Amino acid sequence: MNNQNNTVLVTENMTALPPPGAPDIEIARAVRPWPIFEVAQRKLGVAAHALIPYGHYKAKLDLAQIDTTSKVGKLVLVTAITPTPAGEGKTTTSIGLTDALNAIGVSASVCLREPSLGPCFGVKGGAAGGGRAQAIPMEDLNLHFNGDFHAITSAHNLLAALIDNHIHWGNELNLDARKVSWRRVMDMNDRALRHTLVGLGGPAHGQPRESGFDITVASEIMAILCLAEDRKDLQRRLGNIIIGRNRDNMPVTARDLGAEGAMTVLLKDAIQPNLIQTLEHNPALIHGGPFANIAHGCNSVMATRTAMGLTDVVVTEAGFGADLGAEKFIDIKCRISGLKPDAAVLVCTVRALKMQGGVAKDNLDAVDVDAVKLGSANLKRHIENMQKFGLTPVVAINRFPTDDAKEVSVIKEVCLSLGARVEEAQHWAEGGVGAKAVAEAVKTILDGEAPDVQFLYEDDLPIDDKIRKVATSLYAAEDVQFNIAASKQLDEIQQLGYGHLPVCIAKTPYSFTAEPSELGAPSGHILPVRELRLMAGAGFVVAICGDVMTMPGLPRKPAALSISLDDDGEIVGLF
Description:
Blueprint: H1 10-14, H2 24-30, H3 36-44, E1 51-53, E2 59-61, E3 74-80, H4 90-103, E4 108-112, H5 117-121, E5 129-130, E6 133-136, H6 138-142, H7 148-168, E7 175-180, E8 184-186, E9 196-198, E10 209-211, E11 213-215, H8 220-227, H9 231-239, E12 242-246, E13 251-253, H10 254-257, H11 260-266, E14 274-278, E15 283-286, H12 301-308, E16 313-317, H13 322-337, E17 343-348, H14 350-356, H15 369-388, E18 394-398, H16 405-417, E19 422-425, H17 427-430, H18 436-446, H19 463-474, E20 479-482, H20 484-495, E21 503-506, E22 526-535, E23 540-545, E24 564-565, E25 571-572
Parallel strand pairs: 3-16, 3-17, 4-15, 4-16, 8-11, 17-18, 18-19, 20-22, 21-23
Antiparallel strand pairs: 1-2, 2-14, 5-6, 6-14, 7-12, 9-10, 12-13, 14-15, 22-23, 24-25
Helix pairs in contact: 4-18, 7-8, 7-11, 9-11, 14-15, 15-16
């Protein structure tokens, strides 16, 4: 890996920032960003004519103007233990690691997903990192970022409108209105729209039928955009979308309807990766945003490939814990694209392991070595799961000021007993310098022999056995149970010839089981599958398990109630 001469030292950029613990938005605003043309030129070697600017500090990359064939950078996957309300800091670590790699002289960029408005206005917050390891401009990133999600929503709902319009004007395709599977989407949590009736009001307003809404990040079009290789592949995949069945029970596609061309037009700008910067002015390519609990949880293939063609190391993340995000990254994104990670980082915190050990959130500041030992069973399983893919991760302990040295020692002992390198990181408080030890550990792995990354299952394994393989191997389940509807859908998918597709497990992210309250490392449970959705355009089958919803609801006190503009027109309350 080549060193770079334009590294911005962390001390140069961070001394004027508010102290650690200040609101993320205050820290982000305290940094004077570089013009996006300067980031592109100095950090990526990309000329101004290859950028489509969206203001001064963000832009889209015009892939037709960029040569990414002369370099193939190394790929680092950042994943985490099972998430808790205590926080793990996976995105913060991804950004901090990128800054740290640049600080030690490695040309590195970070590839992340775009935030959804759902969690921003719900309970989880934004997705720009935190503390002194953030991507900026964080307000723009978290709200309407360059219009990509709006384009995806529009393309999805255009197809829905064309379906109902086709039925209204004679239904040449003989669609069975009872078997239209294409729902509508919006980028907001709204439980009241999960199940709806459309076409009410008489013949002039369409044919009544049951339908519903999913959140945009669960849209098949979101998955397609993130897995497409280029515009041609995008349109091909859009045409492959199955919208329902005809009265002979045969599948009908968006191509049959003639919809894929107009949908592609709506996505012509959204398909281009977005470029912003970290607090330390390192390149951040942000593109696509499927959730990992209900979708495949990875940023776009195009952004990842572009970054690998422009920097020596690309840091990327997969959503939620390794049982969901990392599994889907490897078994779906890598399988479809041919990409494979050269190293992996597994993020954990003392606080999260205490919660996995049964400590209530209000009591996490108290030293509790026994709880860390108990909760470390969760960490142990995630390390062992990553090793099943051929990757022994570097474990990054995301340090909090309240962490006790004895608690940290417990984590280190667990990691070392499994052959995993472990390092402490304080990037949240110190920026890139705080993650230097993790960066050095990752660089050592990247400088060595490439790992032999393996998929968890082969393509020719039947769909039900693929789901069973994930459940028993990674979740330590005893078996999988399909309800009557899912069993019927399973048979139909196999009969239609889609049994070779990978599976995308949609379940709670908070447990290895389908029950969020089952913490730690439970085993011997049954994974209940209530529905299978064939996403022929994206190229995978979604298995919806337990009570997980593809349209989330808002919490009792949504974050939206604390977000507003001050007298100067500045956003307050966004985190």
